[in-house]
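Standup notes, structure subgroup. Blocker cleared on the indole-3-glycerol phosphate input:
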Amino acid sequence: MNASEDSLAPEVRSILDAARERPGGDEPVAVTARSFPDAVAATEAAGRIPVVAEVKPTSPTTAGERTDDPVELAREMVAGGATALSVLTEPDHFGGSVESLRRIREAVDVPVLRKDFVVNESQLDAVESDLVLLIARFLGDDLSDLVTAAKERGFQPLVEVHDRDELGRALDAGADIIGVNNRDLATLAVDLETFESVAPHVPDDVTLLAESGVTSAEDARRMRAAGADALLIGTAIMDGDVRANTDRFSNATAKTELSE
Ligand SMILES: O=P(O)(O)OC[C@@H](O)[C@@H](O)c1c[nH]c2ccccc12
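Run returned:
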């Protein structure tokens, strides 16, 4: 355990403990990735907000579990205009599986992010995906090696940060896709100011995501105004009609133009 882990919420501690036990793949995967920056550019060219819609059957902060077929949910999100999908593969706390991800990636043609707590190199080989999440807070000195290992396999690593210090580590590790998580993994509290405070320090050539806590069109516009290239939205899309919800967030920009 390193110092920054002492303060974690008990739920996060237990997620991390489980992640450290999970087996990886037998041999390195070789991924032909669908370009995420290109998908973001195409959505922007069409005048919409790039939304990464997240298939998250449940979570430590969500009441209940959604039992619909994940592939159906994924198709609906794409029909609603999702630029990319995020798929939880964490089984114990988020109801995910590598099998769901495999099936979803086969069923859609947008880039797919593997959302899990990858803590070692062989876990990268559990399943192919276009993007893979690496959480700076949990990787300490291994971050740089994992970014390199992910790129070698053809993945586009998305490095998740929560403050300027982690941003510096992500950049030093060679990350070119970075997500600022508005949720503090120590307390699980969400604050959109987190993104606003970190974003100004991110170089322009980085593809920048705002993660967590976007619940309304107004939040979406607020994150865009603060410099988000794309928004990663889970709970607010999973709650109800996922196609209509995805469409509402990706078209949130149009309303601003009309009303301002
Ligand atoms: O449901 P929300 O608040 O829209 O958040 C989505 C996503 O950012 C969140 O699920 C998340 C961000 N980082 C993570 C790391 C692991 C698991 C999940 C996450």
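Discussed briefly. The domain at 3-259 is CATH 3.20.20.70 (TIM Barrel).
Next: hand off to the docking folks.
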